[in-house]
Fold:
Amino acid sequence: MVKEIEKVMPVVHIATVVPISKTVGANRIVPAIAIPYPLGNPAMQPEEELYNRRQIVEKSLVALQTDISEQTVF
Structure:
């Protein structure tokens, strides 16, 4: 499905298990934090967690704007 969406618009896969993302054919892959909390960590202080979330989202936005010719992990 990722490849079909990519025909219309770029897609970023925020993934907790990068090898699986590669296997399914995701082109732009941004590693996430952990399987139960891909964009967060409840053990962190709220300010730290917000900072980490923002970093992942900003990295994803950069990935969307980057021209690629093969699968890329950002």
